[in-house]
Amino acid sequence: MIEDSLAEKAKKQLYKAALEINLDPNLLKIIEKPMRVLKVSIPIKLDNGRTKTFTGFRCQYNNAKGPTKGGVRYHPNVSEDEVIALAAWMTWKCSLLDLPYGGAKGGVICNPTELSESELERMTRRYTCEIMPILGPHIDIPAPDVYTTSKTMAWIMDTFSQFKGYTEPSIVTGKPEILGGSKGRKEATGHGVALTIREYYKAMNQKLEGATVAIQGFGNVGGYAALFLSKMGTKIVAVSDYSGCLVDDNGLDVQGLLDCVEKHACVIKHPGKRIDRDELLFQEADILIPAALENQIHKNNADKIKAKVIFEAANGPTTPEADEILEKRNIPVMPDILTNAGGVVVSHLEWVQAMSGLYWEEEQVNFELERKMVKAFNTVWQIHNQRDVTFRCAAYIAAIERIAEIYSYRGLFP
Ligand code: NAD
Fold first, then answer.
1. CA–CA separation, 76 vs 174, rounded Å?
2. Domain boundary, last residue among 317, 334, 351
3. In terms of Cα–Cα distance, which of 308, 307, 327 is closest to 384?
4. What residues are in contact with ligand 1 under a 6 Å CB criterion?
5. For labelling, which of 72, 77, 185, 354 has a CA lying 20 to 30 Å from the CA of 368?
6. H or E segment to which residue 83 belongs
7. Residue 224 belongs to some domain of the structure
8. Of 216, 150, 156, 154, nearest to 188 (Cα)?
9. Beta bridge partners of 120
């Protein structure tokens, strides 16, 4: 049997929720498809003098709620299908969190570890230039994702600004603070993951302190999630990244791991017991946090998971088939569109600050982040209990109902 594409998988999740609420089929015809997908060629001069042409994409999935928003990914597996799925998830995420945004995603097919910094800069600037016709602070606002950083955002901002002839800090979020980035943004997604876990434990009347955690992926999201969770008293017993997996039943030294990643760009150089990288998912831990890439938990490994609950810090780490297996096994999955929404919440705050030219203290940013995350968690929790549906279905229902209401006023143009 041929596997569904990622966009087909994302669609299945949408259909499930649409069926549950008897969504108007005419509306489904609009929101089941991306509004716009741009494919671009990105020729750049390599350091060795040769020219190489990369392929990039930008998908703006739906803008009913406002300008589209979403990250830019640099990875060999980037594809049109992947950016469509990721842009769809951004749309539902922004709606669930009630942000004035639609969803987008971009990416370039490349192996960033094989490119020098100046090659990456040229590739980023040329990519920005190619997608410029559909970019703008009121049109579409990029942000960091896998293998893109605040520096990448600075290059995008500068390229856009050079073309416009004025400095435009609101064109990207996740940029360095000195350029108008928000305090708390780089930690925001991991922080939001920790807040979601805290709320879940509170709602379940369970003690979070002492709970054991396994984290797949120790980049921006996984690393900060580990830091916030360890401050909340949990024990991080396993972490992995592309380089391998480290385990310690007594709890790993999170700050030591973060320092190691800063210095060596991998966790495996840190002292500790090593196991096979992909064994991370099957560790004995109360909480499993996939924080790497999509499709990690699938029909062939979902029955081996031992965690009591899964929090999706990555986008799309669980396939619909795995969802069904986990549901039968009574392992709740707190979905990506809620769990990792902290990043886009603070991106919104960054955009608001850049538009107004008034910058906030970290306490104010974190207060707003917490308020939004707790509110969205409570909405999902309530729908889950009222309708007896999975947390994913509940999150989709909240997101789609809001978009349906918007269409009820805006109508269908022309
Ligand atoms: P990142 O590039 O900073 O980190 C990715 C991590 O995953 C790295 O540690 C990498 O080594 C690891 N990894 C890659 N392949 C792996 C494998 N097979 N096994 C184990 N680890 C592996 O990226 P990030 O920004 O932390 O994003 C991670 C996920 O979170 C992605 O799905 C992304 O879309 C999602 N996300 C990111 C943000 C954000 O603000 N950065 C916001 C929302 C969602």
1. 22
2. 334
3. 327
4. 144-147, 189, 216-222, 240-242, 277, 291-293, 313-315, 340, 343
5. 72
6. helix 80-96
7. yes
8. 150
9. none
Task: Say whether 105 is catalytic.
Answer: yes
Q: 11, 105, 183, 235: which is the annotated catalytic residue?
A: 105
Number of domains in the chain: 2
List of residues 6+ apart from 381 with CB closer than 8 A: 199, 203, 391, 394
Choose one of 77, 189, 270 to mutate for the ligand 1 pocket test, by most ligand atoms within 8 angstroms of C-beta.
Answer: 189
Q: For residue 307, give the nearest of 292, 286, 277 by alpha carbon.
A: 286
Question: Is the same domain home to 247 and 143?
Answer: no
What's the rounded Cα separation, in Å, for the pair 119 and 288? 36
261 and 307 belong to one structural domain: yes
Query: Per the domain annotation, does 191 fall within a domain?
Result: yes
Question: pLDDT tens digits, residue range 25-45?
Answer: 999 999 999 999 999 999 999
Query: 282, 302, 334 — which closes off a domain?
Result: 334
Q: Which tens digit of pLDDT belongs to each residue from 54-107?
A: 999 999 999 999 999 999 999 999 999 999 999 999 999 999 999 999 999 999
What average pLDDT score do residues 313-338 get? 97
Do 191 and 374 contact (CB within 8 A), yes or no? no
Q: Are residues 165 and 230 in the same domain?
A: no
| Residue partners of 97: CB distance under 8 A and separation at least 6 | 341, 344, 345, 372, 373, 376
Indicate whether 242 and 316 sit together in one domain: yes
Q: Which two tokens stand for residue 188?
A: 């925001």
As a whole number of angstroms, the distance between CA 322 and CA 69 comes to 28
Residue 63: CATH number of its domain: 3.40.50.10860
Å from CA of 49 to ligand 1 middle: 32
In sequence order, the β-bridge partners of residue 55 are 41, 109
Looking at the fold, whether 199 and 328 belong to one and the same domain comes out as yes
358-405 pLDDT per residue, tens? 999 999 999 999 999 999 999 999 999 999 999 999 999 999 999 999
Q: Are residues 151 and 222 in the same domain?
A: no
Q: Is residue 291 part of a domain?
A: yes
List for the chain the helix, strand, coil content (%; round to 5). Answer: 50, 20, 30
Query: Token pair for residue 17?
Result: 């929720």
Whether residue 147 sits in one domain with residue 200: no
Asked if pLDDT for residue 1 goes beyond 90, the answer is no
Instruction: Report how far residue 208's alpha carbon sits from residue 53's, in angstroms, rounded to the nearest whole number.
Output: 49
217 CA distance to ligand 1 centroid (A)?
A: 6
Same domain flag for 99 and 142: yes
| Structural domain range at position 147 | 33-169
